[in-house]
Every structure is written in C-alpha cells, then in structure tokens.
Amino acid sequence: MWSTIDITMMSRAIMLARRGRYTTRPNPNVGCVIVDANGVIVGEGWHQRAGGPHAEVHAWRMAGDKARGATAYVTLEPCSHYGRTPPCANGLIAQGLKRVVIAMTDPNPQVAGRGIAMLQAAGIDVCSGLLADEARKLNPGFLSRMERGRPYVTVKLAASLDGKTALANGESKWITGPAAREDVQRLRALSCAVVTGIDTVLADDPSMNVRYQQLGYLQQQLDEDELIQPLRVVLDSRCRMPATARMLSLPGQTLLVSCQAYPAEFMRTLPANVQCLQLPDVAGRIDLSALLQYLATSCNSVLVEAGATLCGAFISNALADELVLYQAPKILGASGRNLLQLPQYQQLSDLPSLQLIEQRKVGVDNRLTLKLGD
C-alpha cells in the first residue's frame, strides 16, 4: 500500500516534528512535508510554538504555488476547528493539494476524524495509518490527556547500586554525576509540570526549575527565550509550605496543593505567580487521581521528583507511566535511605509490571527508562 517515497517522506515529517518537543506544549508535536508529482520536497515545516502557525502552514508557505496538485505528509490529522489559528484542513484544501497522507488521526474530540472528512469532501485523496506507531511516540503526553483524561506521568529516581537515595543522615549531594544532573534539566524542560512533596521542600529547599546554563548540548538547539518553565507543583496536604521557600520567588508558575485552606496571612505573602489549590484527601493525603485530572486541563506530561513516599504512591496507585532511574556507581550501605516506599507485596504476581525501554550511559552513571503497566 505504501510506496518507498511515502515511507521516506513520512519519516522526514516525524523527524521535523521532534524539533518542537521543547516548545509546543500543551499542543502536540507535528511535522509536515509537501512533495510534488516528481517526488521532490517543495515545502516542509513543524509546529514550533503553541499559538503560532501549525506545521502545515509552514509547509504550504514554503511550497507556494507548487503545493497545487502535490501530496502532503502530516504526522497528525490536520485540525478542523478554529482555535488560536484557523483550521489546517481548510488551508490544505485552499492550497489545492491532490493527496494527503496522515500518520494518525487526532484523538482531540474537536478533531477526531473531522479533518479527514473535510479533506475527503473536497475531493482530496486521504490515506492514514502510515508509521502510526512512530507518530504516537511523538506525543505520549498529548495522547494520554486526550485518551485517558490525565497527563503522562514520569517518575524520576536516582539511586546507588544498592538502591539507596541517601545516607542514613540524609546526605545525598551528590549521588549522581554532573552529566546525569544535566540530563534531569532536559527532562524538566520536556515536562509541562514538575511535582514534588512538601517534605522535599522542607529538607532541600529546591528550585524545581529549568536552569538554561545546565542544559548542555540543548543550548545549541534552544534559545533561552524559547525555554518554557514547567509548572512547579508542591503537594502540601497540611499547609506547611514556608513563605521563604526559594521556588516561590523564582520566575514561572508555582501551584501549592493542599487538603485545607492556607491561612490568610500566608496567602497575603504570595507573589502573583503562585496559586493555591485545595483537593480532597485520601487517608490524609492529597488525592493523586484528582490532582492529575486537574493538571490535565493544561498539562500533557508530568515529571515527579520527590521522596520515597510520594514516588511510591504514584507507582502503587498505578498512576505512573514511566520510570527514569539514574543509577550511580556507588554503594551507600544497608542503613541508607530506600528508593521507594511501596506496599508489602505477598506474591511476585502482585509486583508492578516493568518493561525496560532504554538503557544508556550518562557520564559515569547508568540511565534506565522503564515503562510501567501492560
């Protein structure tokens, strides 16, 4: 069904789409290639920033009159509704495309097949499903939000060879090396929100932001003014957040989540970029399902950087999709602090299902990426 040119051009569109992965959120990453009847690329582009032109617009602007009678390869079904930009399906029709090849339909209820129907009604030959699995990998967070009503959740962990995160006295700086800490900055830059717990804030007073100077090679691909700071989310069920916490004075948005109202005096100290949210509790702790449902209004992907209790809660409640573990070549001993707090499993069949997706060296450390669930 698919020609060599079809596969080559869609592969090119997928590669282009990846260029927007740090800047498009909460929109999906999309790439588009326009090819004339001779198999020559006459236009291409990718979605670069939410609110800006979509991939198809960049491609047809580059193609100009050469778009008429050509074939467009798009990694995601062209939109069919008016948002911050006009519908791309209408634009492709106006440009006189003869054929449109789509990797996958858009699960967004505002699109969900309507873009394809519009193109077909205009007499355009539409084919879909080419390299669909590869296209899905471009947007795990967007797809999770649209299909499951919650963001894609990654739990970041760092431990010694014997599975410890700190010495018994709490000392942990630094278990991992500078290259791994740089890699974490890039993980944050990919995330819509970074979630931590109040105990981590009280113990470490972290910034939980992306530090541009520590992005390493990514600085060559991303200008500092393109960097989008993730939403910093602190789970603080009993309202223990200190007004002097470092992150409260940093640029970017911070969300404090509690199970009760913060005192009025504390609220008066908060800058405008800090918001508070009250959610129901489950056994005295914040309802994590309710938290993810709230974050799904604007967040595709969530990175959890927290202690053993909160990280364990996301895993044991089947709310984590992926683990990223940085394993350092150190041994901290039996009295060191454990990586995760999980239930006392009685049978091997009760253990969380894990699948190793990637393993690679990051400086002196080993980075493991594991998928959770079936």
UniProtKB/TrEMBL annotation:
<keyword id="KW-0560">Oxidoreductase</keyword>
<comment type="function">
    <text>Converts 2,5-diamino-6-(ribosylamino)-4(3h)-pyrimidinone 5'-phosphate into 5-amino-6-(ribosylamino)-2,4(1h,3h)-pyrimidinedione 5'-phosphate.</text>
</comment>
<protein>
    <recommendedName>
        <fullName>Riboflavin biosynthesis protein RibD</fullName>
        <ecNumber>3.5.4.26</ecNumber>
        <ecNumber>1.1.1.193</ecNumber>
    </recommendedName>
</protein>
<comment type="pathway">
    <text>Cofactor biosynthesis; riboflavin biosynthesis; 5-amino-6-(D-ribitylamino)uracil from GTP: step 2/4.</text>
</comment>
<dbReference type="InterPro" id="IPR002734">
    <property type="entry name" value="RibDG_C"/>
</dbReference>
<comment type="pathway">
    <text>Cofactor biosynthesis; riboflavin biosynthesis; 5-amino-6-(D-ribitylamino)uracil from GTP: step 3/4.</text>
</comment>
<dbReference type="InterPro" id="IPR024072">
    <property type="entry name" value="DHFR-like_dom_sf"/>
</dbReference>
<keyword id="KW-0378">Hydrolase</keyword>
<keyword id="KW-0479">Metal-binding</keyword>
<dbReference type="InterPro" id="IPR002125">
    <property type="entry name" value="CMP_dCMP_dom"/>
</dbReference>
<dbReference type="InterPro" id="IPR050765">
    <property type="entry name" value="Riboflavin_Biosynth_HTPR"/>
</dbReference>
<dbReference type="GO" id="GO:0008703">
    <property type="term" value="F:5-amino-6-(5-phosphoribosylamino)uracil reductase activity"/>
</dbReference>
<dbReference type="Pfam" id="PF01872">
    <property type="entry name" value="RibD_C"/>
</dbReference>
<keyword id="KW-0511">Multifunctional enzyme</keyword>
<keyword id="KW-0686">Riboflavin biosynthesis</keyword>
<dbReference type="GO" id="GO:0008835">
    <property type="term" value="F:diaminohydroxyphosphoribosylaminopyrimidine deaminase activity"/>
</dbReference>
<keyword id="KW-0521">NADP</keyword>
<dbReference type="Pfam" id="PF00383">
    <property type="entry name" value="dCMP_cyt_deam_1"/>
</dbReference>
<dbReference type="InterPro" id="IPR016193">
    <property type="entry name" value="Cytidine_deaminase-like"/>
</dbReference>
<dbReference type="InterPro" id="IPR004794">
    <property type="entry name" value="Eubact_RibD"/>
</dbReference>
<comment type="similarity">
    <text>In the C-terminal section; belongs to the HTP reductase family.</text>
</comment>
<keyword id="KW-0862">Zinc</keyword>
<feature type="domain" description="CMP/dCMP-type deaminase">
    <location>
        <begin position="4"/>
        <end position="127"/>
    </location>
</feature>
<comment type="similarity">
    <text>In the N-terminal section; belongs to the cytidine and deoxycytidylate deaminase family.</text>
</comment>
<dbReference type="InterPro" id="IPR011549">
    <property type="entry name" value="RibD_C"/>
</dbReference>
